[in-house]
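We treat protein structure as text, and this decision shapes the records that our systems exchange. The remainder of this section carries one protein's record, kept here as part of the documentation:
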Amino acid sequence: MTQSSTLFRVLGLSLLVALASLAVSSCINPPDYPDTPSIEFKTITKERFRTDGGLIDSVKVTVSFKDGDGDLGLSNQDTNPPYDYGNGQNRYYNNYFIQPQIQQTDGTFKNYDVGTGGYDSRYPVLNTSGRSEPLKGDLTLNLVFSAGLPFRAGTVVRFQVNIVDRALNESNVITTEPITF
């Protein structure tokens, strides 16, 4: 074997080790997100379907989320304080909060009163590893309305959304793009 081929072999092996080190180090350093979840608006879609019960409008709201300790979501067994139903009065029975807003004739938007709990919902536990670790992803909530109820045809609606983690840290509030029913 010549001295130059040995040199190329050593350089090639060194390059391979350096690339492997970079790959491993990038896997070791998790992203640094705050423990309070943050969300960004991603999409809103509306589809109309015909069912045996009549026409329904399906509205899907998707937000992107980041959370530093990954304590997002509630299971069906999470019914004790602070996640108990509490006669419908406990905000934290849910973890996905959504407030419809209706466009007024002057172009401004006003909250639509849907009563206690309204369209608030629960999303499931997202981190199933049992470890505290950063999470990033998307959440989609599907809202189903009977056509014409509660929003009449031609009504322009947008939604304000925020989420909460298991430690009751509330995310920022985002506003969707408006849709027309």
Summary: The chain has two domains: 1-30, 38-180. Confidence is low (pLDDT under 50) at residues 4-25. The longest strand covers residues 38-51. The radius of gyration is 24 Å.
